[in-house]
Structure formats: C-alpha cells, structure tokens
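Thread: Newbie trying to understand structure tokens

Hi all, I'm a second-year student working on a class project, and my supervisor (Dr. K.) asked me to get a predicted structure for one chain before our next meeting. I've only ever worked with sequences, so writing a 3D structure as a token string is new to me. If someone could post the tokens and maybe explain what I'm looking at, I'd be very grateful. Here's the chain:
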Amino acid sequence: MNHVVKMLLSITIGNVVATSLFILIVHETSFQLHSTYWIFSYIAGLFNFYVIEHQTKAYQLLNLYKFQAHYDFLTGVLNKRKFDEVLSEAFTKKLKQPIHQMSLIYLDIDYFKTINDQYGHHEGDIVLKEIGTRLIKNTRSSDYIGRIGGEEFAVLLPNCTIEKTWQIAERLRKKIADQPIYLKNGLSIHTTVSIGCAYSQGIGADIKQLPIIADQELYKAKESGRNQVSFSERKKDHLT
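---
Reply by user tm_fold:
Sure, no problem. This is what the structure looks like when written as tokens:
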C-alpha cells in the first residue's frame, strides 16, 4: 500500500507539471482534455505498477527457489546435491577456474548426538548454523563448502597446495574448538571437529579417489581421539 501511495503521488506531481506546461506554453485550457489525460495517466500508472510488482515478486521467488535448490537452509552452505554437482564438475575440469591441483576436506562434528540429546535439536541446529558460519569465514572465496550429512561438512579447495590445505584444515579445527558457541537457552558450549584431508594434482583417475581418501582420513582422525586433522599426504611429504 505504501508503494501504491508513492506511485499515485508521483503520477499526480507529473500530471500537475504536464498540465501546467500545457496551459502556459500551448495555452490549452480544456477541462475535458486535461481530465481525460489525468484519467488515462492513472490507469497506465496502475497497470505499469502491477506489471512491475508482479515481475519483482516472480524474480524474488525464482531466486528463493534457486537458493533452496542449491543451499542448505540451516547453515547457508551448499546442500549435498549441489556439492556433489560441483565435485563432479571439478572432476571433469568444468569449474569456472582452471584446476591444477585440488584438495578435499571432510569434517565431522564430534559427539553431535550428545549435544542433541543433552540440549535438544533446536540447540543442535544453532551449533550446525555456527559451524557453517565459521567454515565460510575461514576458507577462501574460491572454495566450495557443503553440508553432506547431518553433522558432516565438506570443503573443496581448488588449486590448493598440500601445505595450504593443512593450514586451512588446522585453522578450521582451531576456530571451532577455541571459540564457544552460544545457545538460545543462554548457555555456551565448546565443540570440536574431526577432519580428514585428501589431495590430488588434478590429473589422471586419482582425482576421483578424493572422496574415498578424505573419508578414510576422517575415520583415522576420529579413531585417533577426535579434535584433530588427519592428512596422509602431508606426512608423506615430511612437512612440519
């Protein structure tokens, strides 16, 4: 309604200006002519307003549907279907940027079931949302983040070296472990994550083994005590 009032006001001001110019310049003072002009200008204005509003709402709905189709509604990162699509594009070298090497990180929230059982699923959602936010803040703009399971996330790192992969993974682990998460009930809790990393030079069939290797490394991190990063490639290269 506020938009309608503004639209009518703008038409009225335009009509006043146009009518004044007609009278001053053309010396046209016909009441019938001016009243007809005013009526048609309001009709045309209302019609244009309806068309613009309809197109705007349709565009907003389209963007909403696109977001819901590609993103996880809770965490704001890519959903599993879209992340798998991005991963497939990376395997076939169809991502927007050229790929010379690539890493994949799998991340799982430690003892998430206990959080849900102790504080409730609504508070568990707060934890998931905060984890998603920290992943976004502590990765590169060229990286792809997805929620691929209930409490499991994945990060695809195009053109990322072994050492840089380790640095990003460790940064994510520390940012999650060192900072408390504030729940709706006023309490704050500390949570940790286990992380598995896989690396490929981006050539040959080995690139499609990234999800398998990352999952194996994640399992090693969880079996070794959780709250740690497991990355066999880094150990092979004797990086410190």
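A couple of things are worth pointing out once you decode it. Residues 2-70 form one domain. The helical segments are 2-26, 31-70, 80-91, 112-119, 121-137, 162-178, 210-223, 232-236. Feel free to ask follow-ups in this thread.
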